Amino acid sequence: MIIAGGGPGGLGVAATLEGWHPRFEGDYEFPSDEVQALARTHEKNPLAFDPHELLDKGHRPIEFYRMRHHPIQDAVPLDEWTLKFTKQERADWLMLTTDGPGGLWNGVPREQMTLGPAHWMELAHYPIAKFYEQTGRERDLNALVHRDDLVPYYQAYAEELGLTPHIRSGIKVTSIKPPGDDVAARFVVDAVDQATGSETTYSCDHLVFGVGPRSVLRDLSAPGTDQDYISFAYTHPDDYPEERVLVIGGGRSADWAAQELHDAGRMVVYAMRQQPEAHLKLINDSQFLPYYRRWAEILSGNQERMGLLYGANVTAFEPNGVTTITTSEGPIQLQVDHVVVEIGGDPDYELLESFGGDLTFHAKRDNFRFQLNQLVVDQATFESVDIPGLYPTGYTAQGTGLSVIGFHAACFLIAGDILRKLGAV
Q: How far is CA 30 from CA 39, 46, 67, 69, in A?
């Protein structure tokens, strides 16, 4: 098996394939009597039963596991967990990842916080409460997590569960193809070492597709994007020492950059294509997050250092920071010291183009401007309906929702299906 991507979706599958198999212990209760009976029947080895049994009874298999991991809204104390793990023999898997354990979290801004509480971000095989305890971190499990705690957690997860020897970091998958007649496998995977440029070809029978929702950054279709004052990845205000900064975007990452630069004393112009109603709704609906409460404070003031351009489209970048922007009131030109482009990205589905035909997508949207096309999968196994042996995971899979708490449990459906096909459970 090859796992493409080192984010939480792929890490959970890796741990299960490594032999960390779930079991249910103690007192627990499902809301349905028939699901409760099924759980009790298979509680010693839930990976062994076919989740289509749940689907046939009108129950979502991914919820079956999610409810064992997150049975209540708040974090469950470690001594009350009913989801446990037994170490079994490992399967033959390898992870290829550009960023290492944690995936895209390795490259977020230096002060980035999560959008949900700590226990939403954890993978069940190694609770984040245990990580906090082992590393001397005194943290609230129901509070947001700083990236300086979350990335080390995912790294510790890989170490604690014995995954690290089978993770190849700094490796970018460049294509996923059907095999030729001389290859006795279902997939051929080409990859390149980002440090050396050396290319390697792998083959496998099962492939977990966890490349992440931003594996291909969107292009800004304006001339002059090669100007040296333009940055395509915001990290920290210290990287933009001069006063005038133009932020281009409109999603949560651009909101974060504009607000943090403003509070660091920069003069910020924030240009976005959306209209003000959509932005204000996001801010008002997100007051549970500290940086959106701060946005509300900024907007209620005089905005002396925050200029907002709605319905705006950047059309050209010229030397010396001269930027042309079209607005509903006509074109304007600004002269800035820095430009931060945070316009998001999409999953790299072009990796699968060699399989031909049209992939079946589910257009997923939420109320907070997160949107992407997810691959349609069998809801009992998360195997692609288009490509046998391919298992989308994380945000790329239909049925996971757009929150991390929604997709973590898919690792048991994916690994369970692979292991049953191998006769290993």
A: 8, 14, 8, 12
What is the C-alpha separation between 118 and 256, in angstroms, rounded?
19
Note the pTM of the prediction, 2 decimals: 0.94
Domains of the chain and CATH, by start? 2-214+346-422 (3.50.50.60), 219-343 (3.50.50.60)
Rounded Cα gap, residues 231 and 114, in angstroms: 23
Residue 75: alpha-carbon gap to chain centroid: 21
- Sign of the alpha-carbon dihedral angle for 6, 10, 13, 17: negative
Q: Are 391 and 382 in contact (CB under 8 A)?
A: yes
Residue located via tokens 């083959």: 203
DSSP string for 276-290: HHHHHHHHHHTTTSH
CA 154 to CA 3: how far, in whole Å?
16
Residue 192 CB partners (closer than 8 Å, separation 6+):
171, 172, 174, 198, 199, 200
The CB-based long-range contact list for 330-336 (8 Å cut-off, 24+ gap) reads: 334/244, 334/246, 334/269, 335/244, 336/229, 336/244, 336/245, 336/246, 336/269
What radius of gyration do the chain's Cα atoms show?
Answer: 23
Q: What average pLDDT values come out for the chain (425 residues) when binned by 10 residues?
A: 96 98 96 95 97 95 95 95 97 96 94 93 97 98 97 98 98 94 89 97 97 86 95 95 96 94 97 93 91 94 90 96 94 97 92 89 74 92 97 92 81 98 96
